[in-house]
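FAQ

Q: What does a record look like?
A: Structure on top, sequence underneath. For example:
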């Protein structure tokens, strides 16, 4: 078995394409892709918030003081409304054509005397399907004017400040969060980490699995290997260990690479935040997270090797393996859904239970007794799949299809 493992690993390390996907891709390409996507997304949001928007006001004669305040808002350019734009439909058309970015309509009941004016409703015509911050830019001014009107109305009614506050907010919910920072952050990102780890393990194992099984068929080296004085069980286990190692190394290299790049490219509080969060997890929980990946990688390796052995060619093997990505995604997404906890039947659902366990370990709320059942059930499933793989490899009709 170890001889086969050594042979397969040497062949794997000699293959530049495999090394690229296992090492270069995680270290350089993945961080660049994720970092580039995040950079352009943040730039798009920043540009939308700072872009100068053109607008017009309808009914400015009702609130000249408010119009003056609107003019002080940065990155807003007030323009005269075209003379042919009068009706609501014409205003909508002007927005759709791009003549103006938005139009704000001030109602004729606008007045500081809110006891008699009734509710004042501003209409904003805009294309809300695009990324913009129109409402955010205007809400500060409108909220300030609203507060002033309220205070003046309360003063006329003879109310003091305490009575005003009570009337505006008669009931207040005060939240006391008993969760520490690790639990709060872990709840946000804990569901994403298993998703990334599982897919990385699967993707890292796919390429060597296709080459070790179907690739050997195409090259004609499988027959030579079968004639060697090595049992078929040892051959399967050697190939299985190679695929498992490739998947685990690919996931580990990618995670370490992204963590290092994140710290290097971050600044100030971001570094402190990452450092503080990572320090709060503890080495034992981190080791348990990666220990939980062992049976998962074993499951993937056994399934991939079985498919590769069955396939007639490298291309056919890749066709069989690609749908596995979707099979893996579903149970991991279930673990990330709110309300799904490591209790009851969920503790026995393959992949989902490990994803939930990793999430709890990151949060620091893991019941460690449950790890025995989760790890044990995962090991049993992985062992059954390895057993099937050995049986599959011993079938002549499978090897020589």
């Amino acid at each position: 078995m170890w001889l086969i493992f050594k042979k397969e690993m040497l062949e794997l390390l000699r293959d530049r394409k495999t090394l690229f996907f296992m090492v270069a891709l995680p270290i350089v390409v993945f961080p660049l892709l994720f970092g580039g996507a995040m950079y352009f997304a943040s730039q798009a949001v920043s540009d939308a918030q700072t872009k100068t928007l053109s607008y017009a006001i309808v009914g400015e004669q009702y609130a000249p003081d408010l119009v003056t305040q609107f003019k002080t808002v940065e990155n807003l350019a007030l323009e005269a409304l075209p003379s042919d734009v009068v009706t609501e439909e014409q205003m909508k058309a002007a927005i759709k054509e791009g003549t103006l970015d938005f139009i704000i309509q001030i109602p004729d009941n606008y007045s500081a005397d809110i006891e008699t004016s009734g509710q004042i409703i501003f209409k904003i015509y805009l294309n809300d399907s695009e990324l913009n911050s129109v409402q955010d830019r205007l809400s500060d001014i409108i909220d300030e004017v609203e507060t002033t009107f309220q205070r003046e109305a309360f003063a006329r009614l003879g109310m003091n400040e305490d009575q005003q506050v009570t009337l505006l907010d008669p009931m207040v919910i005060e939240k006391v969060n008993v969760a520490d920072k690790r639990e709060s952050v872990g709840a946000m990102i804990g569901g994403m980490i298993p998703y990334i780890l599982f897919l990385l393990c699967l993707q890292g194992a796919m390429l060597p699995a296709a080459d070790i099984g179907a690739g050997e068929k195409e090259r004609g080296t499988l027959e030579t290997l079968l004639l060697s004085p090595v049992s078929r069980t040892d051959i399967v286990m050697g190939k299985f260990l190679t695929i498992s190692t490739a998947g685990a190394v690919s996931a580990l290299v990618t995670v370490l690479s992204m963590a290092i790049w994140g710290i290097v490219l971050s600044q100030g509080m971001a570094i402190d935040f990452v450092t503080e969060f990572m320090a709060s997890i503890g080495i034992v929980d981190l080791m348990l997270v990666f220990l939980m990946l062992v049976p998962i990688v074993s499951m993937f390796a056994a399934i991939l090797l079985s498919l590769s052995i069955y396939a007639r060619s490298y291309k056919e093997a890749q066709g069989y393996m690609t749908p596995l990505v979707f099979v893996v995604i579903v149970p991991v997404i279930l673990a990330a859904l709110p309300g799904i906890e490591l209790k009851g039947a969920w503790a026995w659902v393959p992949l989902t239970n490990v994803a939930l366990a990793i999430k709890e370990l990151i949060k620091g709320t893991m019941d460690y007794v449950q790890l025995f059942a989760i790890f044990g059930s995962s090991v049993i499933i992985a062992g059954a799949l390895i057993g099937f793989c050995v049986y599959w490899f011993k079938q002549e009709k499978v090897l020589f299809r």
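Q: Is there anything notable about this one?
A: The chain is about 70% helix and 5% strand.
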